[in-house]
Amino acid sequence: MSLSHFDAAGQAHMVDVSDKPVTARVAVARGHVVMAPETLAYVIQGTAKKGDVLGIARIAGIQATKRTADLIPLCHPLPITKVAVDLVPDDTLPGVRVEATVKTTGQTGVEMEALTAVSAACLTVYDMLKAVEKSMRIEGIEVVLKDGGKSGRYEVGA
């Protein structure tokens, strides 16, 4: 297997996808922010000084999805057809679980967009709560589902 973002001379380049068929594609990524139970209480009660932590983080994830090609140098700008960013408080972490689902109909996948959505949402949770707790940790960011295109379906645990 070769790395597609390097040409024959070893130089980084954007992959030419012009000969690839347009197909429906989807990617799901997950991650979480671990925090103290007292910090999570601010999220659940909606009493964080900066406002609605989960709502603002959801918007940040959606916004970041649309800007992925601006952030990751060799990503193609894609016509995103759906973005869903779900944030769920979880007492067992304790913290917030984040999942992003991104869809497109195009010539390349949306794994980077889903990862970017989760990353931005997690970073926003941290930003919204850092005055309360600086020791929060962002963990476990990964692609858990990718479907569409030549390589087919990938699913964690499948």
From TrEMBL:
Domain Molybdopterin cofactor biosynthesis C (MoaC): 14-149
CDD domains: MoaC_PE
Catalytic activity: (8S)-3',8-cyclo-7,8-dihydroguanosine 5'-triphosphate = cyclic pyranopterin phosphate + diphosphate
Alphabetical list of Gene3D superfamilies matching this protein: Molybdopterin cofactor biosynthesis C (MoaC) domain
Pathway(s) served: Cofactor biosynthesis; molybdopterin biosynthesis
Residues of the active site: 127
Oligomeric form and interacting partners: Homohexamer; trimer of dimers.
Listed name of the protein: Cyclic pyranopterin monophosphate synthase
Gene label: moaC
